[in-house]
Each structure stands twice: as C-alpha cells, then as structure tokens.
Amino acid sequence: MPAAPDLTIERVDTRILDVPLIRPHGFATMTATAQPILLVSVHLAGGVVGYGEGVVPGGPWWGGESVETMKVIVDRYLAPVMVGREVSDLAGILVDFGKVVANDRFAKASCDVAMHDAWARALGIPVRDLLGGAARDSIEVTWALGVLPLEKAVPEIEERIAEFGHRSFKLKMGSGDPTVDTGRIVQLAGELDGRVGLRIDVNARWDRMTALRHLPALAEAGIELFEQPTPADDLATLREITRRTGVPVMADESVCSPSDALAVVREEAADVIALKTTKLGGLRESVKTAAVAEAAGLACHGATSLEGPFGTAASLHFACATPAVNFGSELFGPMLLKESYTTTDLVYADGRVTLPEGPGLGLEPDAAAVSRFTRD
Ligand code: MUC
Ligand code: MG
C-alpha cells in the first residue's frame, strides 16, 4: 500500500491579482475594468498545494468585503487557524474560523476552497468526489451583461449566441433613473423578440414602490426572472413582488447563509435561491444552503461573484455534485477575463460549461501569468 500523504497544512500564502476584463462590466453602483482576486494557496507538508479565490463582484459595494479586507482577514486570522492542522480536519477548521472571525464569508470561502483543492489533490481525486461525486458533468451557463446601452448589448448577445450558444442572458439594472433603466430593458427585449431567455438583476437597489411601479412593464416585456429587485433584509417586499408580478423571483443578496435560506422559505419570499459559493462562505456552507432550499421545494441557481478559473471551477464542482442546483448557472466569470492565469481553461460550448478532469479543482496556475497580474 502506498504511504498515506502528509495532510498537515504547513503554510498559507495570499496575493492580490488584478485581472483585466474583456470589456468594462457595469454594476449598479460602479463599473469594473479588472477583477481583483485574492489568490489563496494552502501548502501541505507532503508538497501538495491547493488554490482558492477570494472574489467579490467588482468591489466592496456588493457585500462589504474586498480583496484588501480579505487579505488581512486570511493572513492575520484564518491562516493561523489552518497552519499545523491536517486538511482532513476541514469541518473542524471551519468551526474554528467562526470563533475568530464573524461573517466575512467571502474570505472564509477562499480558504474553504483552497483546503478542498489541497485535500482532493493529496488523495488524487477531484473536488466533486469530496462533495458526493458528479451527479452530472456539465451545467447550462447564463451570460451576464453589465449595464450597457442597447447598441452595445444587442451585438454582445448576438455574438455570445453565435460563439457559445448561450440560451439565456442576465441584464444588470439598478443604476441611474429607474424609468430610463426599465425603458432600456423593455426595448432590448423587444429587439430580441423572445429568441433567448432574459433575466434582470437589480442588486437590491430599488425600494418597494419603485419595484412595484416598474416590474410589471418588465414582466409584460417577457423578462423571465427578477433577481433581488429590493433590499436584502426586506423579505416581506420580496414576497409581495413574488405574489404580485407572477414572474419568479430569485433571492441573491437576501441569502448569505443556510439560515438566510430558511428565512426565505419561512416568509415564502422567493422561488429561486442564487447560490454563490463565495458569499456563502465556501463549499460546505453552499451544500447546507442547497439542502434547505431543496427541502422546501425552492429552485437553486449556480450563481457567481465573477470568480476567476479556480473560484469558478469550485462552484462548478459544487453545482455538478448537487442535484438541488436545478436552475442552471451563470458560471461565466473566466470568459469575462481578458486572459487566464491557469495553464488550461474550463471548456465552454453549446451554452454549457463542463467539469474539468484531474485531481482537485482540475486546474493548474500559470506562474508567469500569476506574477504578471499580481498587484505591487
Ligand atoms: C450578482 O449580484 O449577481 C453576477 C453576475 C454579474 O454580472 O454580477 C454578479 C453579481
Ligand atoms: Mg445578483
């Protein structure tokens, strides 16, 4: 029998990367031209290294964390919890994370993923096998457009349909005047004339009255899903929208933990839950959150914080190992990056992304690209 690998965590390194985007991505409150990523590497005594990404969509506007805060939290507080322990003590390490750091789930997720990757690599198995194995080997991918004027949005959609076969598109809203914003989307839906599915994400920027005033026009235009139109903690309004518009509502900012999912279930506030492995604190918390939704009969979507290759691969392993993720995904982050920093890329075709082969997350860092993108 081969000797058991040494699973002791010897060192945890972090570095901030700024990876340029193929085009500016307009969010409700800011426009990103590069995606900042905290690359976390967990080094085992046996020589194996696992990778995870600390990523928020564009910056701290989404959930309060940023790559800069994550770096401090990981270096100063989470790394000391990991070092010296066996990576197979993952569940115990995560419990101990909670004793030294409240919240900060994006930072915890970067470590959770790096530990899963290291542990799976040491065992010579893919990460999905640590999560129960692959229930499928690919998942549908919705492409998300930033806030874009019509003359740029239509060609981008046409190009994506032709090149990658995407069948649905998410349109970011919530910036500027709601009447103008709504008019832009209604016009876009008219141009596309039902050829693809269209969803909107308002990123919690509208109040109740604004949402009730404008969502009916969007429903009329054929928008198939409303993602988080109103503030995260106002579940009563989300429920009212769900009831009054007749269009399925997806909770994103409202669900950052399994207990948040339970609150949505209790309030009957949404039809679909957006599961970002980042905002939920990693793969183990994502599995728990999916279980809550599944037990209540809610659909789950494999959502993204615009992770790079490692973060997206982690979400892909999770989504493919979790049958409860039954409402497709938006795991398109690597396609938004001008250049990758892994030696091979995830494969996108026919509107889907396919699980990579190989141990761990199935990707290797490209050392030269990592150095090039590393912030001074
Ligand atoms: C979000 O709120 O869903 C996902 C895609 C995108 O464009 O923004 C993110 C964040
Ligand atoms: Mg969202």
TrEMBL record:
Signal peptide: none annotated. Pathway: Aromatic compound metabolism. GO terms for biological process: menaquinone biosynthetic process. Its cofactor is Mn(2+). SUPFAM superfamilies: Enolase C-terminal domain-like, Enolase N-terminal domain-like. It comes from the Bacteria. Keywords: Aromatic hydrocarbons catabolism, Isomerase, Manganese, Menaquinone biosynthesis, Metal-binding. Pfam families: MR_MLE_C, MR_MLE_N. Gene3D superfamilies: Enolase-like C-terminal domain (3.20.20.120), Enolase-like, N-terminal domain (3.30.390.10). GO terms for molecular function: chloromuconate cycloisomerase activity; manganese ion binding; muconate cycloisomerase activity; racemase and epimerase activity. Residues 150-248 form the Mandelate racemase/muconate lactonizing enzyme C-terminal domain. NCBIfam families: mucon_cyclo. PANTHER family: O-SUCCINYLBENZOATE SYNTHASE (PTHR48073:SF2), O-SUCCINYLBENZOATE SYNTHASE-RELATED (PTHR48073). Belongs to the mandelate racemase/muconate lactonizing enzyme family. This is Chloromuconate cycloisomerase. It comes from Corynebacterium nuruki.
